[in-house]
Amino acid sequence: MTAPTEQALSQQALIELLSAIVGDDKVRTDADSLENFGKDWTKIYPPKPAAIVFPKTTEQVQKIVLLANQHQLALVPSGGRTGLSAGAVAANGEIVVAFDYMNQISDFNATDRTVKCGAGVITEQLQTFAEDNGLFYPVDFASAGSSQLGGNISTNAGGIKVIKWGMTRDWVAGLTVVTGNGDILELNKDLMKNNTGYDMRQLFIGGEGTLGFVTEATMRLTRQPKNLTVLVLGIPELDNVMKVLSQFQADMDLTAFEFFSDKAMQKVLARGDVPAPFETSTDFYALIEFEAVTDADMDQAMTVFEQCMEEGWVVDGVISQSETQAANLWRLREDISETISEWTPYKNDISVVVSKVPPFLRDIDEVVTREYPDFEIIWFGHIGDGNLHLNILKPEGLAKEEFFEKCAKVSTWVFEIVEKYQGSVSAEHGVGMTKKPYLQYTRSAAEMAYMKAVKLAFDPNNVMNPGKLLDV
Predict the structure, then answer these.
(1) Where does the FAD-binding PCMH-type domain start and stop, copy by copy (predicted)?
(2) pTM greater than 0.90
(3) 209 plus 247 within the same structural domain
């Protein structure tokens, strides 16, 4: 007997079935909820979900997935909705599974330095918990105050500390997931060493909810860094940014090495919230963070800075003398995304190996400037790990639809350059819908075929976030 189709299930019947699982008050179909929970930070695809459902337990998520399989319903996971690839957008009548109520922190183990978190735990919530217990959760980014761990894990979020502490996947000790088949899997059981075959945990980290939904994660913590100090340097030539990076890394352990253009900084300064770091204006800036545990650490940083000045790589600089000044210097970099949002930026999140960054960036900048001289380009990113954010700002008076159409052509040129340098079309924001047409620039046909096979093994009925990452 053939299972009923999605069309055969009325809206009222759908609501009743979902309410029977999570309760009447945990299903929403009002216009505001459909709009807010059906989208992420992208503005390309209008949200059109059928309903929003708020489970509170892994077992409720399992029942929702089994219901979806029975009635061929499509499910989209929703966390903090801060994604930039439309991976959490419900644009085709899907049911949005929002994890806001699965936000408990439990089972803290000081010896193992681990803590169990629901998928809805906000990044900053975990950071604060770690700090309250004398420890540190190092994965950090501008959206830490609203992004959720389930989304971070599903996109393998990176951020501003990758050069020292790595990506989200480096901090996941164990996972509880509900697969597309409706099975509950406990992956890795929080072990440090577990050489018993495939580490399926890693498939769900970065899987964008296409294989199943993360409901709970055991996260690792580490010691708190001491006296984090920030140095902002004015660098006139792009090639010199990498020379400065090499010089500092040769003599010091850095916790961050960020990059932004003068155009990016001027947008932030125009708001009047933070002061300029120094009077000198240069085309590029590097923000360096390190632990100044002793006077010798500070002396070493100043010695390297002076060496860079003598070489002509750096023309000016400032070093933080307090936590407040360090926070303000960080705002020069961290406030860029929010500041430029009013220009409806078209974003590309790309990466190459660190040594190839200067020619890679120049090639892209040359193509975009030549083809669209009226488009303002804003560069910034985690240059210390080869991750660059290309932002093209929409000119005033140009319709959003026409702008995105033009930028789609830009993306093709950009990703051809990414392929030339053997880079990635998505360094840390996932593929979702916006990068899906360009996946072949990073992944081979054979790789994509294996990825589809993995998808079908975990989600044979294609109910888990269909249309994202790849088509099956």
Answers:
(1) 45-224
(2) yes
(3) no
Q: What mean pLDDT is reported for the chain?
A: 95
Position 445 in a domain: no
Task: Quickly list H helices, 191-294.
Answer: 201-204, 238-251, 262-269
**How many domains is the chain partitioned into structurally?**
4
CB atoms inside a 10 Å sphere around CB 294: 11
Instruction: Output the CA angle 403-408-412, nearest 5 degrees.
Output: 145
Residues in Cβ contact with 306 at an 8 Å cutoff, skipping those fewer than 6 apart = none
Q: Are the beta carbons of 107 and 450 closer than 8 angstroms? A: no
Relative orientation angle of helices 238-251 and 295-311, to the nearest 10 degrees: 150
Distance from the Cα of residue 95 to its chain's centroid: 23
Residue 6 contacts residue 73 (beta carbons within 8 Å): yes
Q: What is the CATH number of the domain that holds 40?
A: 3.30.43.10
Say if residue 235 is exposed, middle or buried (CB neighbours under 10 Å; 0-12, 13-18, 19+): buried
Q: Note whether 191 and 450 are within 8 A (CB).
A: no
Q: Tell me, yes or no, whether 58 and 115 share the same domain.
A: no
Residue with tokens 């059109």: 48
Measured distance between the N- and C-terminal CA atoms of the chain, rounded to whole angstroms: 24
Residue 151: strand, helix, or coil? helix
Q: What is the pLDDT of residues 104-149, one digit of tens each?
A: 999 999 999 999 999 999 999 999 999 999 999 999 998 999 999 9
Q: Which helix H or strand E contains 328, and what residues bound it? A: helix 323-334
Both 329 and 371 in one domain: the answer is: no
**Highest-pLDDT range among 172-176, 337-341, 403-407:** 172-176
Local structure of residue 97 (DSSP, 8 states): E
Residues 88 and 144 in one domain: no
Please check whether residue 244 is in contact with residue 308, taking contact to mean a CB–CB distance below 8 angstroms. Answer: yes
